[in-house]
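Title: Comparing notes on inverse folding

I've been comparing how different people in this forum approach sequence design from structure. To keep things fair, I'm posting one structure and asking everyone to reply with a full sequence. Here's the target:
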């Protein structure tokens, strides 16, 4: 008997072959975009290889360094399928970022100290401590307690993290405290001693759990860890950065062009979800706070207008997940009542938005991005059954509009990348197809950094193994 996972991989191989042809013809055109600085940077810093200390050059060349392929050479790791067991080792790197107090009372945050481009690496941070399949964080707790006993600097770093969501009164540490290449001469007389309960609280508030993946996006377990400097990065439902886990190392990329003093933010939850769903996860399930980002404030202001759609969406979503999983893994032929009803809701939502003339294009994108799964459920079930052939083609214009909304709402997201590659294999118009491939490669840069063109093509091709719904 063939397992469900094997089946989905077989099915994805068919799509992959088509997307491979598609992406393969386009590479040279994109080479210039992918790394406009490559010729300059490679000749200026040919000696920088993985593991080279970056600190001394950082002050002068940090911007250029981020563009060098050799600086963080992830090519082989990506080309061979992003297997966490073969992840390269990194040195910590702090790019042009600083810690500062937020102007609106949220506490502390990370800000870029100069203009940066989408795909620039902002931070490379090894786990302070990590453990595997450690549901209650007990192994991680033991490891952290051992580290803190031996290192005054680690103790100071650790205690600078928040122990609850009330951060207003906490001191703002210098970013250099976290730069291990700078000698530490801290005055530790005021550093508090070890407290079991405080260690537990800090781990609870700041730790992160991520999937371990084998080639083909197969989940192989979970990693729990604490990453110190990234703990200062705040949540936003329209984030500016993307996060990539490579082994026990976290890399943060600018997911859009940013101006000096812009805040570096990430999503703590699935930000391609409607307001009520995000509120539920952020407030109850995960983090215990209410997001007041610009997108949340706007969506709150029009929630009454879409309340009926929102409630029905919430009621149907879990069932739709089951339906999409069934067709993606078993080629189950349905019917798909939840996906069908969600598709009707999506049309109703678009009609509603069209009637609200006062909304800006960005505001409409935020709403559509949040309800993207209402469209995707039906599109994907139809698509997986026909290998993205004719039956789903009549939805081209809506689908292409949705990709635009998704990339604007949450730049640098795996779901948008996978959707745009699948869509590129399905659309009729070659000009549209080319635009979608370009868009997919741009999303790749935001997600994975300024990698080589052949690496980006491989990442885009492989993205179809990820079902852009789950
Ligand atoms: Zn928000």
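Reply #1:
Here's my take.
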């Amino acid at each position: 008997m063939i397992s469900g996972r094997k089946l989905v991989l077989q099915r994805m191989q068919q799509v992959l072959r088509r997307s491979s042809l598609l992406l393969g013809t386009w590479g040279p055109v994109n080479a210039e975009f992918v790394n406009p600085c490559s010729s300059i940077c490679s000749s200026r810093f040919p000696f920088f290889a993985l593991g080279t200390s970056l600190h001394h050059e950082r002050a002068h060349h940090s911007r250029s360094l981020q563009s060098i392929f050799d600086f963080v050479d992830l090519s082989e790791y990506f080309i061979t399928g992003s297997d966490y067991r073969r992840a390269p080792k990194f040195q910590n790197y702090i790019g042009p970022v600083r810690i500062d107090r937020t102007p609106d009372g949220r506490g502390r945050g990370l800000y870029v100290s100069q203009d940066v481009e989408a795909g620039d690496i902002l931070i490379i941070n090894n786990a302070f401590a990590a453990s595997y399949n450690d549901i209650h964080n007990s192994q991680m707790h033991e490891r952290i307690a051992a580290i803190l006993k031996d290192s005054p600097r680690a103790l100071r770093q650790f205690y600078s993290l928040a122990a609850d969501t009330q951060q207003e009164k906490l001191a703002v540490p210098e970013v250099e405290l976290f730069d291990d290449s700078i000698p530490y001469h801290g005055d530790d007389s005021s550093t508090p001693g070890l407290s079991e309960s405080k260690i537990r609280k800090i781990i609870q508030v700041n730790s992160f759990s991520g999937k371990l993946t084998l080639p083909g996006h197969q989940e192989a377990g979970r990693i729990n860890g604490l990453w110190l400097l990234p703990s200062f990065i705040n949540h936003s439902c329209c984030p500016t950065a993307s996060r990539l886990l490579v082994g026990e190392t976290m890399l943060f990329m600018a997911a859009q062009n940013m101006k000096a003093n812009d805040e570096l933010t990430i999503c703590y939850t699935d930000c391609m979800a409607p307001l009520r769903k995000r509120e539920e996860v952020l407030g109850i399930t995960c983090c215990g706070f209410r997001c007041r980002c610009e997108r949340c404030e706007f969506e709150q202001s029009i929630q009454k207008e879409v309340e009926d759609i929102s409630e029905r969406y919430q009621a149907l979503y879990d069932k739709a997940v089951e339906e999409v999983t069934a067709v993606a893994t078993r080629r189950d032929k349905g019917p798909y009542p939840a996906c069908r009803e969600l598709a009707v809701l999506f049309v109703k939502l678009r009609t509603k938005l069209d009637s609200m003339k006062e909304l800006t294009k960005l505001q409409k994108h935020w709403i559509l991005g949040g309800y993207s799964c209402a469209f995707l459920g039906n599109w994907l079930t139809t698509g997986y059954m026909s290998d993205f052939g004719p039956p789903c083609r009549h939805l081209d214009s809506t689908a292409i509009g949705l990709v635009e909304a998704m990339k604007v709402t949450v730049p640098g997201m795996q779901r948008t990348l996978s959707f745009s590659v699948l869509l590129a294999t399905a659309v009729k118009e070659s000009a549209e197809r080319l635009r979608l491939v370009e868009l997919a490669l741009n999303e790749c840069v935001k997600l994975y950094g300024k990698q080589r063109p052949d690496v980006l093509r491989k990442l885009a091709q492989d993205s179809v193994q990820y079902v852009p719904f789950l």
